[in-house]
Amino acid sequence: MGHRRHLEPSHSWRRSKKFDGCVSVDDGKITRLKSHDYHVLLQRVLPIALRGFLNKDVSLALIELGHFFQRLCCKTLRKDDLEQLERDIIIILCKLEMIFPPAFFDVMVHLVVHLPREAMYGGPVQYRWMYKIERFLCKLKRYVRNKARPEGSIAEGYIIDECLTFCSMYLTDIETRFNREHRNDNRSSSKDEHVLDIFSNNSRPFRDGIYDVIPKKDFDMAR
User: Which residue intervals define the domain DUF4218 in the entry (predicted)?
Assistant: First the structure.
């Protein structure tokens, strides 16, 4: 429920579903996460969040597991580093076996042992991630209108999307996917004042900002 639990019991927002998110304070659970969300949680969040709440042996094993995936997902991989990861993950799993029950160790946990060797054969994992495919499958899932015939709904929706995309190539008076701005497009600034190198990259603020020109004396001192 989040901050809604502090509202009055008769407030209309207290039981409203439009505020429902992925975190449930009452149950202490996180739901509706994607695979990339677990990827970020394991590598970035859990190693920091678990330090003050678990025993040293438990937190150290989980931190080492997150560090293993963080090193495995680097942009540049070296063969000697992967060989070291292949030896380290066996020790990490042995530590986890002393903490978690046997039912925790299914085939997916055992798969981690083979990931360094797979990276040696296939190269960096960024080129073999499934995140883009999962997003595209989510897009196809939204095409389904008749649950009794999902394949036909997906095919029909995909054809309609392709036809609209083709027709929008010849439309100039309205906004289409060919002439609209990109989601992360940073418009260039028309101001001609001198700026430092670290501020030379253009960006688009979320709201109207207040611009201030650095005095020449301060600019010379900074250089």
Answer: 72-184
pTM of the model: 0.58
Name residues whose C-beta falls within 8 Å of residue 47's C-beta, 6 or more positions apart in sequence.
62, 63, 66, 67
| Domain ranges within the chain, ordered by starting residue | 1-32, 34-128, 132-168
* Four-CA torsion 163, 166, 170, 173, nearest 10 degrees: 70
pLDDT value, residue 1? 42
128 near 94, Cβ under 8 Å? no
* CB atoms inside a 10 Å sphere around CB 78: 9
pLDDT of 83 > 90? The answer is: yes
**CA distance linking residue 66 with residue 109, whole number of Å:** 13
Q: Which residue has the tokens 């040293």?
A: 56
Specify whether the backbone of 30 is left (phi greater than 0), alpha (psi in -120 to 50) or beta.
beta
